[in-house]
Write a sequence for this structure.
């Protein structure tokens, strides 16, 4: 849907040096019981390692986003902030973290010394916090993509339920990151933007991300189709925020060749970081601790659990 004209996003972009049909999946076995997360604090910037690949795609520049007022990015829905230069792209990945696929995406990005924005689902973050920690440790930007990937334009949802999807998603990501608050970057599932939630995110100083082009990787039959669809759209537009999914196998398989095509086509990657981390709400931090339903750890001594019966 298109956002009504007249919505004003107060934001500033300063330069620093240098959709989706989501497959419902059962919850995997969870890890150890969560501990109460410490107060939110911005993650320390990891030391930038020298790029070992002389032909890497790399990072052309980094932009810092002041999310005051909830600015919107991606011309599919938001037209005001046209900050990308010709042949610049932003790589974005939705619906992780997920075994095999997300680590594969991370390896490819590392091999090309480049970066992306990850929009993880809250539930997935509680399933695989160790993978999400790897995303952050690699220097990528981490936002949120709701708690359960609910389409927030669904009329069966109350306004409070819509807010809970947003807030609990951020709280779950924060828990998965060991108490480090993610960036105040949010993408609506299926790119469905209910106007009242656009307004709400503005009051929370959370930036909204649509896209300039959708790879439709969730519909792809194979990796080559992901590459062909993405490059055809990108060559037509000349620049843009690209929507991909680290949840999908074909995306992970396509990414090495896709990044090579970007490099060959003269495209450059822009890294987007937030001026300040999101401020999660205590109510939803507590709900994540209660509702993640992770098992408690037994306090029984080893001798009462494990006994040698033969050697």
């Amino acid at each position: 849907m298109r956002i009504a004209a007249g919505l004003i996003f107060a934001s500033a972009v300063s330069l620093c040096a240098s959709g989706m049909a989501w497959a419902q999946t059962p919850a995997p076995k969870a890890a150890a019981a969560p501990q109460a997360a410490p107060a939110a604090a911005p993650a320390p910037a990891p030391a930038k390692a020298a790029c070992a690949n002389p032909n890497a795609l790399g990072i052309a520049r980094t932009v810092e986003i002041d999310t005051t007022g909830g600015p919107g990015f991606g011309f599919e829905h938001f037209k005001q902030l046209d900050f990308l230069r010709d042949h610049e792209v932003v790589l974005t990945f939705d619906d992780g973290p997920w075994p095999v696929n997300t680590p594969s995406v991370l390896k490819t990005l590392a091999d090309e010394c480049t970066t992306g924005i990850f929009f993880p689902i809250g539930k997935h973050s509680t399933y695989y916090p160790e993978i999400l920690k790897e995303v952050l440790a690699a220097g990528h930007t981490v936002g949120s993509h709701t708690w359960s990937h609910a389409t927030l334009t669904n009329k069966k949802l109350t306004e409070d339920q819509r807010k809970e999807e947003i807030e609990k998603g951020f709280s779950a990501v924060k828990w998965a990151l060991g108490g480090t608050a993610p960036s105040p970057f949010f993408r609506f599932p299926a790119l469905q933007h209910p106007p009242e939630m656009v307004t709400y995110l503005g009051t929370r100083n959370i930036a909204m991300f649509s896209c300039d082009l959708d790879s439709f990787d969730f519909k792809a039959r194979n990796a080559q189709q992901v590459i062909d669809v993405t490059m055809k759209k990108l060559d037509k537009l000349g620049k843009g925020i690209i929507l991909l999914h680290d949840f999908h196998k074909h995306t992970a398989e396509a990414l090495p060749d896709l990044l090579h095509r970007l490099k060959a086509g003269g495209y450059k990657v822009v890294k987007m970081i937030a001026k300040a981390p999101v401020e999660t709400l205590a109510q939803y931090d507590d709900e994540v601790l209660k509702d993640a339903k992770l098992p408690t750890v037994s306090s029984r001594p080893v001798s009462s659990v494990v006994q040698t019966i033969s050697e």
Observations:
- The chain has a mean pLDDT of 86.
